[in-house]
């Protein structure tokens, strides 16, 4: 053992010495490194402009892997400030850490590039003498691009010298370590595991690097942006206690929003803004208050201000939200002009601020719930994207595809819930109240006892409320006849997920019915309260708490079915669940005894309920992704084939695939694999609960999801051949044959042209919701 330790130590010293020598050589030739001033008022004649010349290239070739918290080496390329900040050898996603990590949010946690250097971020742009030669040779980015051109990808089905796992050990070389990196990994130039940039693209980027990687300020605000910002800042920064509390509530729900002031359906992508807490009032430059969470301790007087979103819009983190005259009128009617008063503003103590039922008890529950319902898709999308960029954390707490509907805000049960939460607010403290360093040994029983008490009281009320009429469809919110947020679908793609408007796919295994209490807790558990930099205890406790919210939502759904089928269906959902989970499941269902008021006529009440539900919500269910509305008979025939596939062929497909169907014009579709689980109560070893033989495929119109795993390109006249090959797959080798015939692999020379078409389509069809996809989960087969 001592010899091994000595060998490792000597190897580390050897690497350090080699890097030191390289650094000394660079110092001798180009001077010692120092942070450069890259933001300039004007460029010199003939220089490449970052915004018009360089950013489009980086967005299409680099940002697809290097953005948000899951950017390899934390090298975020979605903004020039990220390029200047550089990279880090520390990972943000480190689920085993015992102590919370330091915050490294770009634009939040360091005021300058110099400050990032003190946080051990190293430069990827040259920081020595600013000459064209030095700016290329001294740039990790430039050297990475050159390395790829010197060692292009082979045109093979599967690359052998690459690790594409999300949790792979990252190799993050500094410029001093680059010679050794080149020797050990000559094929790992950038883009990693993808084709090189084109000649003209490389020329433009190299010219920009040679001139020092400089950029001009972002365009100033237009009059069309300044006017609504001024109006909204006046509304959100009134002095009275009632307005301050309302504004705090709005901010804590919109702090991740990408706000726009454009029309509801613009033809072009508008500029987006962030709502931030500031120490300074309107009329002065915002001084952002940066804390781990939006409700962490703040200054005595908080001002809510708007700042331009400084980064490229990414599908995986994009949460668009519109502010216009209609929205302002809605806010006034729900909150600002509503007949209630606020006697005292709550503080920011963690036990209080992390608990919305305590912090906002003075705000009417009906107003809070309607605020959430109006944009339910936005708020539930936050739990997928939220502060983590992607749905990796706690995703094994949800099924692969399920529908979500909502309780009517006018129903008495909503007020009963509110009364219970107000009376027992202290019992509903969420994990965030314990901070980001939480005990690793989280007690399931601590949460379950409080939740069972809540369910028992709710059941007692419901048994009285519905004993005569029963539980009927009239208890479900119908979107007031116009709001498509009344019906949503969540689709999980292994370690990412998507929320969309509409009831997508065939009737699912389970569904959720949400009321105010669950919806609010989901937001404060997974969005406002979750810390991606937190320790393993914080992440485990968050996941365990979400178990109870999921089960409560599922039990709400069961209430609409006859009493005789509830227990058998619940047991099917939780086949094999053991221990505390089984005890809780049995206890949580026993208390509710009221029967349904729906007169079922078939032998399959669950399927019949889904049919009744779709009729109940027919005027508001979004058809955006509905494949039945497609005009192509070949696509409809393919969907018919996919609907008959169970198990065998489906299990060989990746979780999420994008399909381009070519013809007179190209159309785009998504193929989603729905994984079947016996239950999802296990915190670890999820694979033990998988039943691949029951997997299904769902085909949707348009591009759905942020992290595609595979690309296919099929001429419309060959769709029957394509779907036939899919239906007949019996092995992984059969899937590889499908890829050989119709796949666009990561090694395909035409990969980037295919990617460009995807993004062009996304921008043209989704000007508000579209953005740059992430290719970190592209398969290697």
| Beta-strand content | 5-15%
Structural class, from helix and strand content? alpha/beta
What spatial order of strands do you see in the largest sheet?
7-6-5-8
The number of strands is: 12
**Whole-number radius of gyration?**
27 Å
> What's the pLDDT, averaged over the residues?
92
Largest sheet: 4 strands, mixed
The number of helical segments is: 26
* Residue runs with pLDDT of under 50 for 5 or more positions: 1-15
User: How far apart lie the N and C ends?
Assistant: 39 Å
Summarize the structure.
This protein has helices spanning 2-30, 50-61, 80-85, 113-118, 132-137, 140-150, 178-184, 199-210, 223-236, 241-254, 325-336, 350-353, 356-359, 365-374, 376-384, 412-423, 444-465, 516-526, 536-558, 563-573, 579-590, 605-616, 633-643, 719-727, 732-742, 751-765, and strands at residues 258-260, 273-278, 303-308, 320-322, 401-406, 488-492, 497-501, 510-514, 656-662, 667-674, 696-701, 710-715. The chain is an alpha/beta fold. 43% of the residues are buried.
